[in-house]
Structures are given as C-alpha cells and as structure tokens.
Write a structure and sequence with these properties.
By secondary structure, this protein is of the alpha/beta class. The protein is 40% helix and 28% strand.
Length: 261
Amino acid sequence: MNDSLLSIQGLSVVIRRECGEKRLLEEVDFQVSSDSIVALVGASGSGKTTMGLAILRLLPEAMRVSKGKVLWQGQDLLTLSEEAMRRKRGKEIAMIFQEPLNAFDPVFPVGYQIAEVLQEHTALTAAARQQRVLELLADVEIEHPERVARQYPHQLSGGMRQRAMIAQAIAASPALVIADEPTSNLDVTIQAKIMELFRKLRRQRKISMLLISHDLGMVKELADHVVVLADGRPIESGKVSEVLERPRHPFTEKILQASLL
C-alpha cells in the first residue's frame, strides 16, 4: 500500500505476570494507507484490541511495548511525550471502543462529551461547538440530535450509543479511526446500519480505518486489506478478496469456516 499513514513495524507487546512477562503481540507488521480500510482479525485473545490500544499508547499499566515502532506519517508515536501524544489522540487518530457505555463518562450528556473533543482540538467558539455537535449527530443519522445531545449514555439504546461514539470519533476530522469490534454488541439489523454508516463516512470524509473485528462478514463488506492474527502473531495478510477467498494458512481457513463465509 502506498501513501502510508500508519506503519506498524515489528511491534511486540508484553504483560507483566507474577511468573514473569507474557508476550501478547509479537513482531507485528502492517500499514494503513490514505483512504483505505485495513482489518485486523483473529480469535478472542489474539491481540487485536491490544494493538489498537498500543497504537494510541493507551495500554493498561501492566502492559508495555517491548519492541518495534508505530510510525504515524513517518513519526514514531512511541517516542513522543505524553502531551504531544494527547494532542494527536482525537485530532489525528481517534478510536471507537467496543462498548460505548463504558467508554462514555456516565455523568455527562453525550453532547457535552462530543463538544469536549471540539474544545480540545479546534478553535470553534462555544456556540459554534454546540452547533457542530448537532451537525455531527445528524451526520451519523441520529434523529432529533438536540434531544440526544442532552441525554446521558445510559438513556440511549446500544445502536444510538454507537452512533454517538462514532460522532465523537470523527468530531475533529481525524485521518484515521481505529474501530474496535464496532458492531459486536448490536443486533443484526443495527449492525447493517452501522456498516452502511461507515461506508458513507468513508465516501464523504475520506477517513482511513483500522477495523478490529472477528466478524469476517463485516470485514469482507468494508475492508480493502486484512491482517490475520493468531496468538499475537501475524500469520497471513493481503487483499481481502485474496485472503478470504484463497486463504493460505490453516488457521485462516478455520476462522472462515467458523464464520460460514
């Protein structure tokens, strides 16, 4: 892939245990180019979510990057100060978490939390931020955005919370969105609507995406390239059409059979 935004080079992550360190990711390499969707797939525990957190330097305290580079437009994010990294989160790279109810702060309305991103990363006035929040909620096809902006996360349905989280992720117009199992807790009808929303956002905003998922149906529909992880190691990668139609590794064949593609 050309025009690389994100280049993961030999990335390894370990977790501290009483008996020593256990490796969660080992020598992972892949790239995400401009205006592309790359899927990171694998079974539960394969290291997919760990990769997303490592890119944004949001790993839990017990985990650490032991080796490798996370190059963002040629700059290694692992070498930045925490302040410099904070300026990039949300502004240049954003994340859609698997469970919005846990990711949103329960004590503030969703509109307030979206406005916080705008306050942090844009020069909009308070009035302009409030108007932009309503526009963002409308962009993700939320009806009655004025009402929803005033509601708290627990007052929204799962699908509405996911849409609100997508609105928060795209608020500062990032170049890359990391989507961690964005439809795993939704019913099939809502999943299809969220997938169509991703297609629309890609067309309209030219956002690149790292899609973390075990749902190969969604990967086949949305992604251009795929990286298959097993036990923290990349075992196969390439164009989605090639990997899913002509898998070379037995594990890829296994997860394809499990997903009934």
